[in-house]
Write a structure and sequence with these properties.
single chain; alpha/beta; 2,3-Dihydroxybiphenyl 1,2-Dioxygenase, domain 1; 4 domains; four-stranded mixed β-sheet; 13 helices; 8 strands; about 40% helix
């Protein structure tokens, strides 16, 4: 298909999120984050809509309440809004005074510092402070480029082992996903303080069993969900995840076609319909391939 001479769209106008209680959500964004209500309307079909404006930005957030569409249930790590802040330490102090818990972070990438908080309905909000680079930084950009240049299909285990201790999160992520990374390094990366590194590590099919064990107890639901889809997951770990409190972790497990038939049969009887549906599809696909 030929590319258009100019973009089809001009600019982003707004992002819509449907919620169960629009008043509670609007209060969160206005009272906690300081957004402003641009306007409120009721749509022709009866949706209660409030547009929120971020000071200094043209884009808006559209908060919509429409009970006729059913209750809102937001899966973990499905979507989040990211806002820039001037000072993350001051932000955390203000959040603490408002009794708003930090659900993840703060994380320092060297380029930025960020944390997550939960908005109503299960939506996540990321607050980011850009870190201005200075000459005093331990790992300058040149070193990062050199380290990245050392990572390739033929990288030696010794090189990957060394780079697993890089100060730069992007380097550690790359090593965490490399098929040649030694098991000792993967074990270390499965306990990395940065959840994004642990998430990449959880996808690596060459994880040692001890790393599978550690990641199966990770506090981040998304990491356990990604691990559940790993085709190399040991049966013992898979059976342990059958009891995970999150239906989204169990659903991810149900999509794993490498699981023993017995585990899929258990998931097929799960109390959550989303898990049962995924298991039904996986079992049907497996049987179809055998025909």
């Amino acid at each position: 298909m030929a590319l258009p001479e100019k973009p089809l769209v001009r600019k982003l106008l707004h992002t819509r999120m449907r919620v169960n209680n629009s008043e509670r959500t609007v209060r969160f964004y206005t009272d906690v984050l300081g957004l402003k209500v641009a306007r409120s309307i009721v749509s022709p079909r009866g949706s209660k809509i409030t547009f929120l404006r971020i000071p200094g930005s043209e884009e808006e957030i559209e908060i919509t309440e429409f009970p006729s569409s059913g209750s809102v249930s937001v899966p973990a790590d499905l979507v989040h809004l990211a806002f820039e802040v001037d000072n993350l330490d001051e932000t955390m102090e203000r959040l603490s005074k408002m009794n708003i818990p930090v659900t993840d972070g703060p994380t320092d990438t060297g380029h930025s510092r960020f944390l997550f908080i939960d908005a109503p309905e299960g939506y996540e909000v990321e607050l980011i402070q850009t870190v201005h680079m200075t000459s005093s930084r331990i790992s300058p950009t040149g070193d990062e480029e050199r380290e990245l240049g050392l990572i390739g299909p033929s990288s030696s285990p010794e090189t990957l082992m060394e780079l697993s201790g890089s100060l730069d999160r992007w380097i550690r992520e790359t090593v965490a996903g490399h098929p040649g990374t030694p098991t000792e390094a993967l074990l270390k990366l499965s306990m990395d303080p940065d959840p994004l590194v642990r998430e990449v590590a959880s996808q690596n099919p060459f994880l040692p069993e001890e790393a599978f064990q550690i990641l199966s107890h990770d506090p981040k639901e998304v990491i356990r969900s990604v691990l559940a889809k790993n085709v190399s997951i040991p049966e013992e770990i898979a059976r342990a995840l059958l009891a995970d409190s999150s239906p989204w972790v169990r659903e991810s497990l149900a999509w794993n076609d490498a699981l023993p038939e017995g585990i899929l049969e258990i998931l097929h009887k799960d109390e959550h319909p989303v898990v049962r549906s995924a298991a039904t599809f996986t079992i049907a696909e497996r049987r179809r391939k055998k025909v």
